[in-house]
Amino acid sequence: MHKSLSILAIFSSLLIISCKEENKPKETPNLSESDQKTLNNSEISGEYSVKTLNRKKENLGNLIFDFISEEKRLAINTDCNNIAAEYEIGKDQLTFSNAISTRKFCQGAMDNENIISKILPKITKFDFSEKELRLLSSNNEVLISLIKTEKSE
């Protein structure tokens, strides 16, 4: 009889524990830093038109920023030259490196390219909401704001 009560107590304990585990809310697994980069990287992937460039809203021309997530590369098409850079992304952090550019001369069309070349290294963060991607400095100043194009959706 004593042995039967012990076995019954063990099975009852196991049953109670398993019920608690089933009703326990599922925890979100901790993502490694590389997993976070992949998730955020895919979120910003695509083409964007420029809304503001260093607070400038006019005479932006046909600037297109294309984030190519598979290669972690940004390709920028301007009215004259092309700019490319590698990027590294983490949770709310974004940095660019190894920027290169074609160097054709285009009368009056190179101002935006010069601005981009100067502020790209200053970008350290981003803010992403719906269709707008804002590229920020370390003190949260908006350096470039981008709108996702219809083509990318």
Quick take:
It contains three helices and eight strands, in the order ααβββββαβββ.
Q: What can you see in these coordinates?
A:
This protein is of the alpha+beta class and 153 residues long. 28% of the residues lie in helices and 35% in strands. An eight-stranded antiparallel β-sheet has the order 5-4-3-2-1-8-7-6. Strand 3 and strand 4 (82-90) form a beta hairpin. The chain is globular, with a radius of gyration of 25 Å.
Structural class based on helices, strands and sheet pairing: alpha+beta
Give a quick account of the main beta sheet: strands, pairing sense, barrel closure: 8 strands, antiparallel
Low-confidence stretches: 11-15, 17-39
Which strand order do you get reading across the main beta sheet? 5-4-3-2-1-8-7-6
Total strand count, please? 8
Strand residues, percent:
25-35%
Question: Which word captures the global form?
Answer: globular
